[in-house]
Amino acid sequence: MMDGSPFAVYVPYLFTDSFSTVDDYDDLPFYATLNRLLKYFAFIMSIALPGFYVATGTFHQELIPTSLMFTIASAEATTPFTLMQEALIVLVLYEIMREAGLRLPKMIGHAVSIIGALVIGDAVVNAGLVGTPMLVVIAVTAIASYVIYPLYESISVLRILFIILGGFTGIYGIVLGTCIICVNIVALNPYGVPYSAPVSPLNAKSIGDIFYRESWRKLAKRKVRIQNLRGADID
Amino acid sequence: MTKYKRGKISPFSLFAMFVVSRVLVVFTVCNVTSLGKYSSDLLISVGIGLALSVILSLPIVYLIKKNRNILEQKWLSVLYGLYFLFLGAVSIGRFSFFASMELNEQTQSLFLATIIIISCMYAAWLGIEPISRFGSFIFVVTIIGVISVVGFGMQDFSILNLFPFTKNSTPDIFVNALSFACETSEILLLLVLAPKVNGKFEKPFYWSIVLSFIVCALLFFFQSVYLEIQLLFPRFLFTSFPKSQNLMKAKGLILSILRFGYLQFFLKERCLFILQQNALKLKGEARAVLYRESEHFFSYGSLPSSDFSCVFRTGL
């Protein structure tokens, strides 16, 4: 904490901290748990959904239900680009609009975002440049990425990487990408504590506040200290 | 409780890594040395294979316990380093060929091999500790994957498919058992990784052998009982699973989940790195250069191996 600043900085910041918010501890446990699970789901979706869509649409069509496959096929039949190219185009357009919305004055920024999303989105579909399902996928992904805002920077880069991997090597590339991200996450040790703790190395006593939120009665009884987490080498 | 040490792996991580490594090899590897058909007698082969694996590992475990690691000899380190280089190249070559031909025909095996090698380089560079933590995580995913496969195929269950119990001849059963015991390289991995274990390694090692063979037996049982197919045994086990009506849709997904077996590539690459450090005692920049060179060898080595796989498959 610093004098004159309303903010407090705490270390070490662990991976699972991105999925916990202060509100979780005000809400009832079942609602907080639902919210937390939604955040994990949104995180996975925001990174992998476009890549997975590109991979399944390009290489693994058997994974898509038949009726949905017909819808996708009819939408893609009129577009001149491959699924991977489409995903990259829409994602780049979205990132440009987001950046423009951020940099412009607040009032104009909102207008740019709305015009960009509605007008340009509608125009590219009507012009036959991009299929409607792709637009839906990217829109859902973009919204999902704001659910875990602390990880937004990583998500926006990894999303592009996954699209490229999915477009060239199918689900195998996506799994390989997932493996590398996992290895990278578990390799970090900020301030002597594993970034992936308490999931890996597993610390069963701390799991109660990771994927679900335990009741206050149980939380109050816990004697978990950051220095006691498995893998931590701080005193 | 054992105090945590940076750069070391926990006994549970060793157990998890070895289970995942062995189980996933059986899933996807092309058993070129095996004989016969998919039948219930493979369960006997798995049992004999388990006993063989335990017996084969005894001298190594004894040597390590007596603090007589054969890798202390420089020339042996070089020799085993070359072995891991070859093994890694063959594994990557086989997998990239498997993925491109059986599953993803539009992808070039060379391209796939290249990105796997780059990923292995990165993972090995991060060290054994992250790889071991990743192994613990993947262990859970693998177990869920196996349960899902068995669960999804429940509707195809027919006990009649178990009979006749033996379709393969007695010599074939023993050849298959030998194949199960020798297909994977956990004993040699133990040779390199045992000094890195923070605690006792014997129990997790033997339990990993037992559990992995149990999982393999379960899958072969599943193969025999659920699916009425007469495939030749020296085929990729999992490519035949989607023949089950309920698994057809999930073919790509199941195979992909089980491809977390990239872990074994990371492991072999890291072992190679450790052995080269051990053999040449190089530090700093020189070590990095050496490492990079080994990667080049690794990548070049994987190219002809995919051709070998082609030959094997054509032969089958």
Give the biggest beta sheet of chain B. none
Q: Report helical residue fraction of chain A.
A: 55-70%
| Average pLDDT over all residues of chain B | 72
Structural class of chain A: mainly alpha
Cα separation of the termini of chain A: 22 Å
Any overview of this molecule?
The complex is a heterodimer of chains A (235) and B (316). The two termini of chain A are 22 Å apart. In chain A, helix 3 (83-103) packs antiparallel against helix 4. The mean pLDDT of chain A is 87. Chain A has 235 residues and is mainly alpha-helical. Chain A has seven helices and no strands. Chain A has helices spanning 29-58, 66-76, 83-103, 106-126, 132-145, 152-187, 216-221. Chain B is mainly alpha-helical. Chain B is built from twelve helices and no strands. Chain B has helices at 11-28, 41-65, 74-103, 109-126, 128-152, 170-182, 186-193, 202-226, 237-240, 251-257, 262-280, 284-315. The longest helix of chain B is centred in the last third of the chain and has 32 residues, at 284-315. Residues 29-33, 229-239 and 304-316 of chain B have low confidence and may be disordered. Chains A and B meet through helix 6 of A and helix 4, helix 5, helix 10 and helix 11 of B.
Provide a compact summary of the structure.
The complex is a heterodimer of chains A (235) and B (316). Chain A has 235 residues and is mainly α. Chain A contains seven helices and no strands.
Topology at a glance:
The complex is a heterodimer of chains A (235) and B (316).
Chain A lengths: L28 H30 L7 H11 L6 H21 L2 H21 L5 H14 L6 H36 L28 H6 L14
Helix pairs in contact in A: 1-5, 1-6, 3-4, 3-5, 3-6
Chain B lengths: L10 H18 L12 H25 L8 H30 L5 H18 L1 H25 L17 H13 L3 H8 L8 H25 L10 H4 L10 H7 L4 H19 L3 H32 L1
Helix pairs in contact in B: 1-5, 1-8, 2-6, 2-7, 2-8, 3-4, 3-11, 3-12, 4-11, 4-12, 5-11, 11-12
